[in-house]
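User: I'm putting together notes for a lab meeting next week and I want to include a structural view of one of the chains we've been expressing. I don't have a solved structure, so I'd like a prediction I can at least talk through. The sequence is below, exactly as it appears in our construct file.
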Amino acid sequence: MPAWPGGARGALCLSFDNLGVDEASSAAQALPGLLKRLGEHDLTATFFAEGVNAELDPGALQEIGAADHEVAYHAWRHETWGELTAAEQAENLARGIEAFAGLGLEIAGMRPPGGQLGKDGIGVLRKAGLSYCSPAGEGAGVEGGVALLPFQWRHVDATSMLPGLDPVREQMTGSPDPLAPRAFLTYLISEVERLRRDGGFMSVVLHLPLLAWLGEQNLAELLERMNSAGGTGHLWVTSCANVADRLRANPALDRSTTLDPTSWSG
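Assistant: Thanks for the context. Below is the predicted structure for the 266-residue chain, given as C-alpha cells.
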C-alpha cells in the first residue's frame, strides 16, 4: 500500500461536529478550553460547523480558523442531508459557503448530518466547488473529482447513546446497551491501534455538546494517544482537507468507498 506522508501507514483525522443552531444550544463556550488542549497536544482538527453560526457566533468560527484548525460545513441548520432534494442541497451549500466566505473562511468540505449524501450528492458537491465530503461509510477514495473521507458510526461519540444505533453498539461490544464514556474511549483507542497496525483512513467524530459527557480526563487521554501515534510516524494525523488534497493528487492511494445507509434516527 502506498505510504502517506512521512511513510505513515494510515491517515487519522480528529473532527468535531455541532457548534449549535441557535443561541440556546450553542456549544461555542466549550471552544476556548478545547482549542487550548489541542494546542498542548500539537493536534490539528476539523470542525464541521452549521452555517447559521456565521450569524450566531462568527467569533467562534474565526477563533477556530485563527488557531489553524479547519472549518468545514455541516449544513445550514443541521438539516438531515439525505432528505433534501438536489436543489435544496445546492441552495443550502451556496448559502453556507457565502456566509463563511464573509468571515474569511474558505470551505473545502462538508459532513452531511445523518451521514447520507442524498440524490446526486457528489454532483452537487462538485458543482459547489468542494474538494471532499465525509459521509457514513468506509474506505477513503475519490469519486467524480470529490474525495470521500467516510466516518464510521463506531468512531462517533453519539453512537454510545442514540437508540437508532443499537446494532452498531452490538457490533462494537456484543451488546446494544448504551456505552459509558470510558468504554467508548477504550474502544476508540483500540481502533486507533488497529489503524496504526493495518493502515488505511479513520476519522474520529466528537460532538462539542458531548464533550462534558466524555469528560476532561478521557478527552486528554484520547488527544495524547493521537499525538503519540502521529509523533512516532505510524499515523499521519491531520485535517480532513489535507487528506482530501493528498488523495486527489495521488490516485494510487484511492481505495473503493462503501457508503453506509445506517442513520442515527433508526
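A couple of points you could mention at the meeting. The chain has one domain: 5-250. The mean pLDDT is 91.

User: Perfect, that's what I needed.
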